[in-house]
Amino acid sequence: DALVILTDQDGLFTADPRRDPTATLVCSAQAGDAQLEDMAGGAGSAIGRGGMLTKILAAKRAAHSGAHTVIASGHEPDVLLRLFDGVSIGTLLSAPALSLASRKQWLAGHLQVTGKLVLDDGAIKALRHDGKSLLPIGVKQVFGEFQRGAVVACVNERGDDIARGLVNYSADESRRIIGHASHEIVSLLGYGGDTEIIHRDNLVLL
Fold it and tell me: What global pTM score does this model have?
C-alpha cells in the first residue's frame, strides 16, 4: 500500500525553491530520516511554511504501518496513472521493511477495528493449530463496512475474539465469497484476487 499526497510543489526540495535557486528535488529518502523535517521547514506552499512539514509527518505515520509515501504535484498530467505505472514522479519516502513479528505486534495492539468476521470451528482450528490463512469457506458472517487492507476482528460464533488481521477483500466482496471455496472467487466476483480473506502473515491470534 502507498500514500499519495498531491500538492502545489513538485515534491520535497532541499530548500524553498521559491527563495533558493540552488534548491534541488529530493527524489527519494527514508520516511523516518530526521533531515527531512529540517528541509520541510523551509519548503514554501500555498498553505504556509509548515505545509510540507505536515506532509512529512503524515508520511512518517504511514511508514509505521509499512506504507510508502509519494509527494508530487497535483498539476502533473495523469499523475496518479503514471505513478501506478511505476513512473518516478516527485519524492518517494520509503517505509522501513517491517519484520513479521513487528507487523503482528502492531496488529495485536490495534484497538480499533472496522469490521468483524464470524468463523466456523474448522477455520478456527486451521488458524490456531495449523498456522493457516483464513479462507472464505471458513467465514460464516461479515459485520461492518470496510475496504481492502482494513483491520478486522475474527470471532467465533459466541462472539469471542480469536484473531485480528488485514483483509484482502472489502466487506461487500467478502459477503459475496464467504462460505465458498477459493477457486470460486473468480466466478463469484467476476475477477481474480487473493485465495484467502486474510493471509497468515497479516493475522495475529489473540
Answer: 0.55
Whether the Cβ atoms of residue 73 and residue 90 lie closer than 8 Å to each other = yes
Strand order in the sheet with 161-166: 139-144, 115-119, 151-155, 161-166, 203-205
Cα–Cα distance for residue pair 84/76, rounded to 1 Å? 14
Alpha-carbon separation of residue 94 from 56, 186, 196 (angstroms): 11, 33, 27
Please tell me the distance from the alpha carbon of residue 153 to that of residue 159, in angstroms, as a whole number. 10
3-state secondary structure 126-147: HHHHHCCCECHHHEEEEEECCC
Question: Do the beta carbons of residue 106 and residue 112 sit within 8 Å?
Answer: no
Mapping DSSP to helix (H, G, I), strand (E, B) and coil, where does residue 35 land? helix
Domains of the chain: 2-97 (3.40.1160.10), 103-205 (2.30.130.10)
CB atoms within 10 A of CB 166: 20
Q: Where do the DSSP E strands lie in 57-113?
A: 68-73, 91-94
- pLDDT of 198 higher than 90: yes
Write out pLDDT tens, residues 53-104.
889 989 988 887 778 999 999 999 999 999 888 888 999 999 876 656 766 7
